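WARN no homologs supplied; continuing
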Amino acid sequence: MIILDEPYASVPLLDWMEASFHPVLANAFTEKLAAGGRALNLVDEAECARRLEAGERIYTNSENALAWILDQVDNPALTDAIRLFKDKAAMREKLAALNPGLFRQTADRAGLEAVNVADLPLPVVLKPSVGFCSMGVYVIEEPEDWAEAVADIARREDGWHERYPESVVGSQKYIIEGYLTGTEYALDAYFDEAGAPHILNILRHDFAGPDDTSDRMYLTDGTIVNEWNERFTAWLEAVNEVVGARSIPVHVELRVDGDVIAPIEFNPLRFAGLGGTDVAFYGVGLRTYEAFLEDEPVDLAALYAARPGKVYSMSLLNPAPEASLARPFDGAALCDRFSHVLAYHEFDPVAVGFYGFLFLETDAQGAGADERDWLLRSDLMEFAG
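OK structure emitted
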């Protein structure tokens, strides 16, 4: 079963849904797609709820769908897992034994201004307990950073909540936790009916610097897959010994510092958001959602070994703080900067908050590395109207 919702469904996902005729919930979003010519296998709310209550696998493209499931579906194994995974504070408490000694505390939104920064073991990360695409995430290195972060939240939070419901971007509770150095990764994975994890994407999340919290650069290649697949699978097994999830896809963000793997967030019922999971399709021909829904075995190492020396990246094109989202963005000119664009997904920046997704194939070294570095650091203002 599939549930599609605002703000965006990718072309590869929709193409596969037409070809497979996989059932999808009839709602305002899918009915609009059908009216526009997409041949979708629409089922009504009662049929969708019946399928999910019977334990059928479910995939969503958007966390906007979570509220409908929580309201309409009587399947505690599913709904309890959604609530747990989506609540970062609850997950931190649940998994505390896996990361003993890592500082964490929670604060109400109304109390952020009153937090005594002198009591915090800087550097720390401030983030909403329920969040999406790095919205409301701040690295606090110096005491003055706290006031700047709280002021920025006050400026931006109305816009976040205009675009996304409370179930996607929460507003009442924030997490403060110790900042781990090391490297950040993202996983698209699922737990099967026996609780065993299956990884479908391993993406390294690169940053322009310590203050960067954007989703500008995720990349993968054979080296990353070979180095981390076994270790991350073992870590997910340890996680699920505590959580006990069954038959559910997750997009997981985590940070690795030596022997420590610390979770950042678990996003239930979806893979990399806004079509980002399609990096696997554009790179190695893997439709992650098909592998999950059809329970198809995937040999990631073999897929990437067939493309030696190539790096596949996805870039969520975030605007500069001073950019006006109402002004046109020249995606074609941006694409001309690169040697091998796999795909460019254009968004409505006013509705989504981002210009789009860019997928690239680059060489691991040389000019390819230079292209990735430029994209990572550009403010994109030269293309913004």
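DSSP finds 14 helices and 16 strands in the chain.
OK
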